[in-house]
């Protein structure tokens, strides 16, 4: 029988989806909520919208701080929400949990795209080694291939989360304790080394207030495909000089977490340029900040 938490969350999702003109089909969305209904009371739950073409017409729901005893990927598969695959992305989470300490998990689903992502969040005081993670059999070769970049900027031993995007077959690496990499000079240098577009003044202003970032890699390309900076603020409209109308409407009209901080992300990639993501908390857990990059997850939400 559906729980009251699941009923309330589903009603909130429907209401928020209406604000941003995203369809919320009961047959598609309700099973996603019900599959994790027992975890909802202790989870941090966020709604996210973004400005880029890949996320057009979509709204995502993130759940973070899920107990380490519950593998969200395995549960999604057992509930018929995610097809099984022979691709390495399907075994990365289990490879991590077999060899590294996992403090908590996170997951993400789109109202249109269905179950999309999972995060392995390492304990807050135990950042992990990227060279060690790169040895996992399911890890993309591009992680080891870019190790020179990660070492050059002092990031190789500062891994806080690993994210798996099952829909796009990519993965994210989240870094902690990165203040030295958030100055305008460092941002320009790092993005130049990655062949990313020259950062705008808005991005440079944003990174001064960011607390971390993550990199997106895949099994199909040797390059780092996307770089995303994360910040927490109670007023994203004051943090960003220019705000996409969709983002502004979402922030002004969403009825949940009015007094809670919001997670804001500025991402850049060679093909898409700069774009923005905003997450508003339906259910806030202050300790989430210790795990966020969060797309994020985070730190959440971090999560892309």
From TrEMBL:
CDD domains, per the entry = PT-CloQ_NphB
One Pfam family this sequence matches: PTase_Orf2
Is this entry keyworded Cytoplasm? no
| UniProt keyword list | Prenyltransferase, Transferase
Report if keyword Electron transport is assigned.
no
SUPFAM superfamilies associated with the record? Prenyltransferase-like
**InterPro entries from the UniProt entry:** ABBA (IPR033964), Prenyltransferase_CloQ (IPR020965), PrenylTrfase-like_sf (IPR036239)
Q: Which family does it belong to?
A: Belongs to the aromatic prenyltransferase family.
Q: What is this protein called?
A: Prenyltransferase
Provenance organism: Streptomyces synnematoformans
Lineage, highest ranks first: Bacteria, Bacillati, Actinomycetota, Actinomycetes, Kitasatosporales
């Amino acid at each position: 029988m559906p729980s009251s938490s699941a009923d309330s969350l589903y009603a909130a999702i429907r209401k928020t989806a209406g604000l941003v003109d995203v369809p919320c089909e009961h047959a598609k969305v309700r099973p996603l909520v019900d599959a994790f209904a027992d975890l909802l009371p202790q989870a941090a739950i966020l709604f996210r919208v973004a400005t880029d073409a890949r996320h057009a017409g979509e709204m995502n729901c993130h759940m973070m701080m899920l107990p380490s005893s519950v593998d969200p990927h395995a549960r999604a598969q057992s509930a018929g929400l995610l097809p099984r695959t022979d691709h390495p992305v399907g075994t990365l989470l289990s490879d991590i949990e077999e060899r590294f300490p996992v403090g908590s998990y996170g997951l993400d689903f789109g109202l249109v795209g269905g179950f999309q992502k999972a995060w392995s969040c390492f304990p807050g005081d135990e950042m992990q080694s990227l060279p060690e993670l790169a040895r996992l059999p399911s890890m993309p070769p591009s992680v080891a291939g870019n190790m020179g970049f990660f070492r050059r900027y002092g990031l190789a031993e500062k891994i806080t989360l690993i994210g798996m995007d099952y829909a796009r077959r990519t993965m994210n690496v989240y870094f902690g304790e990165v203040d030295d990499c958030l100055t305008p000079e460092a941002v320009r240098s790092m993005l130049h080394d990655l062949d990313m577009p020259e950062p705008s003044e808005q991005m440079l202003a944003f990174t001064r207030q960011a607390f971390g970032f993550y990199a997106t890699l895949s099994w199909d390309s040797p390059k780092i495909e996307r770089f995303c900076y994360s910040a927490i603020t109670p007023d994203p409209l004051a943090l960003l000089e220019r705000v996409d109308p969709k983002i502004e409407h979402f922030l002004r009209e969403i009825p949940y977490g009015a007094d809670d901080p919001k997670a804001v992300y500025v991402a850049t990639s060679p093909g898409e340029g700069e774009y923005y993501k905003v997450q508003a908390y339906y259910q806030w857990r202050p300790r989430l900040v210790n795990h966020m990059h969060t797309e994020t997850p985070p730190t959440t939400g971090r999560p892309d």
